[in-house]
């Protein structure tokens, strides 16, 4: 439970499947996240987000009517948006991140405690969670957008102000590795990796993993505007 005077994170859960919604609500509430509302599609989500003003929207991609991809841009102007979907299509994930999603988690690739941590980290601006499959899809989408690997300039860690270790971590992020995998590869703790990631984001002037990858691959000339 939250301590006296500490405001709980307020979440809106958006999914057309009532079983999925119920499961997410139970997991979030058990993790000290206050679910203030539920919605069944993008249009409903926008109505509820305007009315309830949540801190974060957990948004599915594939829904009847207005889907998650159509709703992510307007929703991200109202709250942080964390996509939760079974969809691993690179174009879908790239579009969601480009249009304002702070993170993208693929169902089946995260544990309950990881979901709760992702929600808290996203709202606090500590991290922008991407499932490994989502990270790889973002890289693939960015490379397609620049005409393939041959069209990409070599990353310049000096221009970005990264230390050799931070550049090493960033390269692994760009290859689609999650923090846990990076920790194993570099033989350090996951907390050490998180600290590196936070410093990398600060130096790059970005707030999401997708935006960091874009800058590292040379597809973003300047940091995008930070979303609320």
Automatic annotation (TrEMBL):
Pfam families: GerE, Response_reg. SUPFAM superfamilies: CheY-like. Keywords: DNA-binding, Phosphoprotein, Transcription, Transcription regulation. It comes from Actinomadura miaoliensis. The modification 4-aspartylphosphate is found at residue 60. This is Response regulator transcription factor. CDD domains: LuxR_C_like, REC_NarL-like. Residues 10-122 form the Response regulatory domain. PANTHER family: TRANSCRIPTIONAL REGULATORY PROTEIN NARL-RELATED, TWO-COMPONENT RESPONSE REGULATOR.
